[in-house]
Design brief:
Length: 127
């Protein structure tokens, strides 16, 4: 695999394998969730259980939504590998860093820009 200005070919290959494994895990989680939901719908009991079931369905939908968003981030990272832009900060163009990507392979920002973003979000959230 070809490297770019931020990562060697070997690093990119390792991170691609991590991303593909995470994609597989998320897909399996989504599949299990859908199967469990279908099974639960077949087993719905009395009216008391229905409120609990509704709560669980809402909770499961939030989890699936989070998994779907994470899956999109994985797909985006894999596309960036193909484009040769993986590991490059979307905001400032600096290298994200191999160690950061090993911990969070879907990272889109370098640590400096991520900290600035979080600072802005905290400030904006307080107003």
């Amino acid at each position: 695999m070809k490297g770019n200005r931020c990562l060697t070919g070997e690093q990119i290959q390792e991170l691609k394998e991590i991303l593909l494994q995470k994609k597989k895990e998320v897909m399996e989680d989504i599949k299990r969730g859908l199967e469990a939901n279908a099974q639960a719908e077949r087993e719905i009991g009395d009216i008391v259980d229905m409120s609990t079931d509704e709560f669980l369905r809402t909770f499961e939908m939030r989890i699936r939504d989070r998994e779907a968003k994470y899956l999109k981030k994985i797909e985006k990272a894999l596309q960036k590998i193909e484009d040769g832009t993986y590991g490059i900060c979307e905001k400032c163009g600096a290298c994200i860093g191999y160690e950061r990507l090993k911990l969070r392979p879907v990272a889109e920002l370098c640590i400096k820009c991520k900290l600035e973003q979080e600072k802005f979000e905290r400030k904006f959230g307080e107003e």
